[in-house]
Amino acid sequence: MRILSVDDSMMVRNIVKKTLEKEGFEVITANDGVDAMAIARAESVDLVLSDVNMPNMNGISLVSKLRLLEDYAEIPIIMLTTEDSAFKKNKAKNFGATGWLQKPFTPESLVGVVRKVLG
Fold first, then answer.
1. Is residue 24 part of a domain?
2. Total Cβ atoms within 10 A of residue 73
3. Were both Cys, which of 74, 97, 106, 107 would link to 92 (CB 3.0–4.6 Å)?
C-alpha cells in the first residue's frame, strides 16, 4: 500500500516515512500542498496523511483540491497536525478529511490509525 505524507517539517516527514516503511508500507513525501498536488496528479496512493498548517497550500485546501481529482475522490485522508481546534477539524471534515491524528503522536498510534483506515 502506498501512502502520501505531506508536511512542511522534514523531521515529521522522516518519522512518518521510517515508521510506516518499517511496517511494510511504501511512503511518498511532499513538503506542502502544492508539491502534494503535483504528486497526486502523477501517481495514485491508498492514503494521504497531511499536516494542516503549511506554506503555499495548507492541508485543508489540499483536501478540497484532492477530492476534485477522480483518483482521490474516495481515498482516506488523515490530518496529522498539532491543531486541535474544533472549528478546523469540522472544516477539514466538511472538505472531505477522513480523520484527525494529533501531533505529537507515537509510532504505535500512527500505525494503528493507518491500519484501521486501510482495513
1. yes
2. 10
3. 97
